[in-house]
């Protein structure tokens, strides 16, 4: 037996369950020694870590579609990294891999739990955490499958400057939407939506009643609503829907930090007469669309037709701050942590 | 020219738009003379008139899927009657017809607007206002098409003792539901559901929290919810839904008399993780299912497998009271007015 070389991983653990908005003291940065990979394992040096709104839900101790994070254990999440030691067939040192052992600088994991991805010319590996990864697939599947988008539809997306929302709006445009409308939380984001991202209209939801702002942006009503926000945005969409409108319910970021039950969309009864369909979904149910998604969206990226933004925060020690900033809307496009 | 024989029709008009629950003074009974049928017209003596919850919405001056009733004009609604004079090909004196000129004892209308129906042995013509008419088709289409019912599903229906609800539960049972649960507003109705109608479980929603009552009745959760009520019932269903649950949103009787926005459901966010589909509908979009519906449901009635109830009120002068009683839950099964 030889004495294994040790690797020090710096990792973020959940120190306390946030009450409302998370704060610094809810997180703890710890060091952990990792050994060499056992049979079938690889050791990965992470290059980029993902922070995503859904993680907020996992910080609560409630049953959801993903189990809660444990206290005083390292959290998990999307990560892309480079294999630095391999004891498994199929993965070699230097391979770029996508996996779920985020919130840490290094990961020791079964090769089966890592997926090799291709480095693309001119595209940062972080794209696999965003436009070519889970958020991109969420946008693609939610718009095209869940909301059954069809050419000519007027599409409204909330949280439109985020990783998912910016992809939704652009995919809708590229697929022939009649009109694409987005909401975001600052004048800069709104300008970005109607500028570089090619939305037909956009508004800052902090400027007044969402119902009124949406009515002005979509005087002829909407056919599809991609909901990242919930609450007053969903209520506004219900008012704006044309007959046979469809909503893909993807997220409710307006409520993730809430400590009280939200008030209802008070106009849900409109769904009857307007014959609306509201459909909740999680991206995990749409993995079968991945190959088609990568081909189509990868093509749009390569041809420059689809633009994606990243907000990059550097260093594992800034990761809790990045996550809190994400919930506060400080990102444009996908927020990642670069190591 | 001959002097036409006149027929006196007694009719119910909307005298005032109800604020909250309708009251006697919102209605006026008037007499109106009808002449003989003109070219292409028939004169019908109505036998049964329909009162339905959707009519409450038409009494408000708001845009909906049907236009509002006009003040000081005779209201309309389902009616079945006998042709007593015809000036049209295809309809003869003595024919039984279904038409939309209800709320009156006699109707002069284009033959094209009347549909001849067959008198069935042992079945009152009033069935065409209920189980073999609009409410029956609503149940059939909502359960099988809108909610995409499949064998083994656990089905919950609110307003289960009503015309639509009692059909929903029985169709679900006949189609192989795993379990059928109903809610109603009295102990007698609950006993009727689990007795004659063959529901597996039922509860009186006035006995406590609907969420708690439903959890007890459906400990394994529900797959399909047929919503006639809205509000707290929909909230309870959202809590009880299994993954990929489906709701057919048909009515919101809890809110029809409301003068304030409802406070429930506050848990719509559950639709995301549970991947639920909520779909509003109106029966007018499902007329293409009518032939299949009449064949299948008519067969179940003939064989005695499907039971239907009627609450019969006699006399046009009692029609406003019948309607008010309907909104107050005084019916079991379809409520009709016999002339």
TrEMBL record, chains A, B:
Residues 20-337 form the Enoyl reductase (ER) domain. Pfam families: ADH_N_2, ADH_zinc_N. InterPro entries: ADH-like_C, ADH_N_2, ER, GroES-like_sf, MDR_fam, NAD(P)-bd_dom_sf. One of its GO terms (molecular function) is oxidoreductase activity, acting on the CH-CH group of donors, NAD or NADP as acceptor. Keywords: Oxidoreductase. This is NADP-dependent oxidoreductase. It comes from Deinococcus radiopugnans ATCC 19172.
């Amino acid at each position: 037996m030889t004495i294994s070389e040790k690797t020090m991983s710096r990792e973020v653990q959940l120190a306390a369950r946030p009450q409302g908005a998370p704060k610094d003291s809810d997180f703890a940065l710890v060091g952990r020694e990792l050994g060499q990979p056992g049979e079938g394992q690889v050791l990965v040096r992470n290059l980029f870590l993902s922070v995503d709104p859904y993680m907020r839900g996992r910080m609560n101790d409630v049953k959801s579609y993903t189990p809660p994070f444990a206290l005083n254990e390292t959290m998990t999440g999307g990560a892309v990294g480079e294999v630095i030691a391999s004891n498994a067939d199929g993965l070699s040192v230097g391979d770029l891999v996508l996996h779920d052992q985020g919130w840490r600088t290094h990961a020791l994991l079964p090769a089966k739990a890592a997926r090799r991805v291709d480095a693309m010319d001119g595209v940062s590996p972080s794209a696999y955490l965003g436009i070519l990864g889970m958020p991109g697939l969420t946008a693609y599947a939610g718009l095209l499958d869940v909301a059954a988008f069809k050419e000519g539809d007027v599409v409204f997306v909330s949280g439109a400057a985020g990783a998912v929302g910016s992809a939704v709006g652009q995919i809708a445009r590229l697929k022939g939407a009649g009109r694409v409308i987005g909401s975001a939380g600052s004048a800069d984001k709104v300008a970005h939506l109607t500028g570089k991202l090619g939305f037909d209209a956009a508004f800052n939801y902090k400027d007044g009643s969402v119902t009124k702002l949406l009515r002005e942006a979509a005087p002829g009503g909407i056919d599809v609503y991609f909901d990242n926000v919930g609450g007053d945005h969903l209520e506004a969409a219900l008012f704006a829907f044309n007959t046979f409108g469809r909503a893909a319910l993807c997220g409710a970021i307006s409520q993730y930090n809430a400590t009280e039950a939200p008030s209802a969309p008070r106009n849900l009864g409109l769904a009857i007469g307007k014959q609306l369909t509201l459909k909740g979904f999680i991206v995990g149910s749409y993995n079968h669309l991945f190959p088609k998604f990568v081909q189509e969206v990868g093509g749009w990226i390569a041809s420059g037709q689809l633009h994606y933004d990243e907000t990059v925060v550097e260093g594992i020690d800034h990761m809790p701050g990045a996550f809190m900033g994400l919930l506060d809307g400080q990102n444009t496009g996908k927020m990642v942590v670069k190591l």
